[in-house]
Amino acid sequence: MLYALARPFLFALDPETAHHVALQFSAVAGCLSRRPPPCPVKAMGLEFPNPVGLAAGLDKHAEHVDSLGSMGFGFLELGGVTPRPQPGNPRPRLFRIPQAKAIINRYGLNSVGVDAFVANLRKTRTIIGVNIGKNKDTPNDKAADDYETCLEKLYPHADYVTLNISSPNTAGLRDLQEATQLAALLSRIRTKREQLRDKHGRNVAIALKIAPDLDDAQIREIAAIARREKIDGIVATNTTVSRDAVMQYPFGREQGGLSGAPLRERSTHVLKVLSRELQGEIPLIGVGGIMSGADAAEKLDAGASLVQIYSGLIYRGPGLVSECVSACLAKSRTASSASR
């Protein structure tokens, strides 16, 4: 109810300004939100209080961990963060398309840099994932250096780290999904993680975030490489460059990554292909177009162990978290009863 009253005000603001205003009031929203029921899930070697998480991109600089955690999320994925600070693309770079319940962003991995990010990241009871990427001016043949730098500095503070190789807003980044480049990157990260595990005496899970704009053969190839390199999770998916569903609307032709309701079907398809290929060997995190509890349950049906929301939070408000947890819990209970 509170968000229904606040949304007209927020939507009257420039989208990026509204983003910052909403984050400032997220603690109030968290206190007033209905707490979701327990729905524990084990995945990636971690125990999640519920399977509904915040997708990367909302709290890019780890400045609102406590207030976002109060909304009932089972985990938060923060960032993306890059080794060195970078401003990202010039404004405007965030666009709402309410007719399609969609958002286009071309932030370009704006980041305070990993050192400032770590300084912001206080200890919390919430499970924390951090989305990491390379700096815009780092060539792809040096990209592994950037990912290693972020992993090393974040290792004592994160529960899992997601390698972002799929943002459409950093030129050439998606080329890292090509088999040869991906295998080389994951091999480097696996070796680095082993060194850090020995040094710190703790394991930090490694996940990989992929694009929705891959064909089935590419998805299966990525799955095979992830299996071979012992990746702990795959996040499916990032935003899409497709505009088929929004071309006719204002801002529908803006450059950047499209998220929200139009992404649901495609991201769910990617999940299904991964699930068939991996047969449960690697946990999957479903993200893209979750605007209701039914959408979250659909991701679980497609093979996800966990889900994440972002655009749905913008359009539906914090109540979506509890709705999604309740839907996941109902699905879990139904599956448990059916197996007896």
Layout of helices and strands:
Elements: H1 2-12, H2 15-24, H3 26-32, E1 41-43, E2 46-48, E3 52-54, H4 65-69, E4 75-81, E5 94-97, E6 102-105, H5 114-120, E7 127-132, H6 143-154, E8 160-164, H7 179-200, E9 205-210, H8 216-228, E10 233-236, E11 257-260, H9 264-278, E12 284-287, H10 293-301, E13 306-309, H11 311-316, H12 319-338
Parallel strand pairs: 3-4, 3-13, 4-7, 7-8, 8-9, 9-10, 10-12, 12-13
Antiparallel strand pairs: 1-2, 5-6, 6-11
Helix pairs in contact: 6-7, 7-8, 8-9, 10-12
Q: How would you portray this structure in words?
A:
- Strand 9 (205-210), helix 8 and strand 10 form a beta-alpha-beta unit.
- The chain contains twelve helices and 13 strands.
- The protein starts with a helix and ends with a helix.
- It has 340 residues and is of the alpha/beta class.
- The chain has an eight-stranded parallel barrel, surrounded by four helices. Strands 5-6-11 form a three-stranded antiparallel beta sheet, with no helix packed on it. A two-stranded antiparallel ribbon has the order 1-2.
- The protein has helices at residues 2-12, 15-24, 26-32, 65-69, 114-120, 143-154, 179-200, 216-228, 264-278, 293-301, 311-316, 319-338, and strands at 41-43, 46-48, 52-54, 75-81, 94-97, 102-105, 127-132, 160-164, 205-210, 233-236, 257-260, 284-287, 306-309.
- The mean pLDDT is 95.
- It has one domain (2-333): Alpha-Beta Barrel (TIM Barrel), CATH 3.20.20.70.
- The longest helix has 22 residues, at 179-200.
